[in-house]
Design brief:
Distance between the termini: 22 Å
Number of strands: 0
Helix content: 55-70%
Number of helices: 13
Largest sheet: none
Strand content: under 5%
Shape: globular
Order of helices and strands: HHHHHHHHHHHHH
Structural class: mainly alpha
Length: 356
């Protein structure tokens, strides 16, 4: 979920369309999270592959980390690099945990009669704030981070950043390509074994997340180092349509094959194509807006998903009301994320950067 505009790359040009695509992916995953509550059978879900947005984020992150730090991490050093990453990412990790705890305590549609007996409630919260996986809450489907489920991908993002700072920035493209091939084999194995690439978020599928980020992060890094920028005239609208096709493809028995194809080939091609495209002047501001919105939206929406699930189980609304609730919910969460960006995320990061 890296933000190109805020990666301390002020002297470099920005890949504006990639910013916009990151926002499109964030909106897609919010819609996916709503719809997976509605359809217990994913084959009926029109956006059943929305979860692949995480793999797109990982690939984009590798590209942007290379773009932002390859030429200066030696001078920065490991400690300074990690401080920059914490400043960029962790304020919303903390806020997402707080929102998740409040959503759990004050869910108006859930039975909270046993809250007083939850001796592990605060331990779970502290681990969530510190990004330490603790899949112990049955009420939260044994998520790695019970109070903010999407934080599982941030955990692996941190791991990838540490490995980048220790190893990946030092190695040549030749050795990086060897690691990418090995990671691709691991990803295909995970997909074949599980039948899909949905894992990584729970204790039962924890290690699937390592395979998902290993390939995509290094592929994005390789694209940057190889300067694979495909010049084109697709523009933001054309690129957004291509990205959405990956999320809208049917959920079938062939997921173990189609999903790795998307992650291994299609997403890297989209990154290279998006980096080589330019938006029209009218859409440039939209791309910047969506890029800025993406990380706050991703990290602050899931508290509402649990409340939505509780409401759905209790009231069982008809199709029309359900559609209105989901559309309104997506708009509300996007507006809420925009407010969070303005009044919390950007001010806190400016303060921390000044202290650093």
């Amino acid at each position: 979920m890296e933000d190109i505009n805020l990666a301390n790359t002020n002297a470099k040009p920005h890949f504006v369309i990639l910013d916009g695509l990151r926002g499109v992916a964030a909106l897609a995953i919010v819609i996916f999270h709503f719809m997976e509550w509605v359809y217990s059978d994913p084959s009926g879900n029109f956006i059943a592959h929305g979860f692949l947005a995480v793999d797109f984020f990982f690939c984009l992150s590798g590209f942007v980390i290379g773009y932002a730090y390859d030429d200066r991490i030696s001078g920065l050093g490991l400690t300074a690099f990690l401080k920059l990453r914490l400043i960029r990412l962790h304020p919303l990790v903390v806020l997402g945990s707080v929102l998740g705890l409040l959503g759990f305590l004050f869910d108006p549609f859930a039975d909270q009669s046993n809250l007083s007996g939850k001796v592990n409630l605060w331990l779970t919260f502290i681990c969530s704030v510190c990004l330490i996986p603790l899949p112990i809450m049955k009420e939260r489907a044994f998520n790695l981070f019970s109070f903010n489920a999407p934080a599982w991908s941030l955990f692996w993002e941190y791991v990838a950043n540490i490995i980048y700072a220790l190893i990946l920035f030092r190695i040549s493209r030749r050795y990086l390509s060897v690691l990418i091939v090995l990671a691709a084999i691991a990803l295909c194995f995970v997909s074949y074994r599980s039948g899909n690439l949905l894992g990584g978020w729970a204790g039962s599928n924890f290690w699937d997340g390592s395979a998902r980020i290993a390939y995509s992060f290094m592929a994005g890094l390789f694209i940057y180092r190889a300067n694979w920028l495909i010049k084109n005239r697709l523009g933001f609208a054309g690129m957004a349509v291509l990205l959405m096709l990956a999320f809208l493809m049917p959920f079938t028995q062939w997921n173990w094959l189609t999903e790795p194809i998307v992650v291994l080939l299609f997403f890297p091609a989209l990154i290279a194509t998006g980096a080589g495209a330019s938006p029209s002047p009218k859409l440039k501001k939209l791309c910047v807006f969506l890029g800025n919105l993406s990380y706050p939206l991703y990290m602050t929406h899931y508290w509402a998903m649990w409340i939505f699930g509780s409401y759905l189980a209790r009231h069982k609304p008809d199709t029309l009301n359900l559609s209105l609730i989901i559309i309104t919910g997506v708009i509300f969460l996007a507006a809420f994320a925009y407010l969070i960006q303005l009044v919390y995320d950007e001010p806190v990061r400016r303060y921390l950067a000044g202290r650093r």
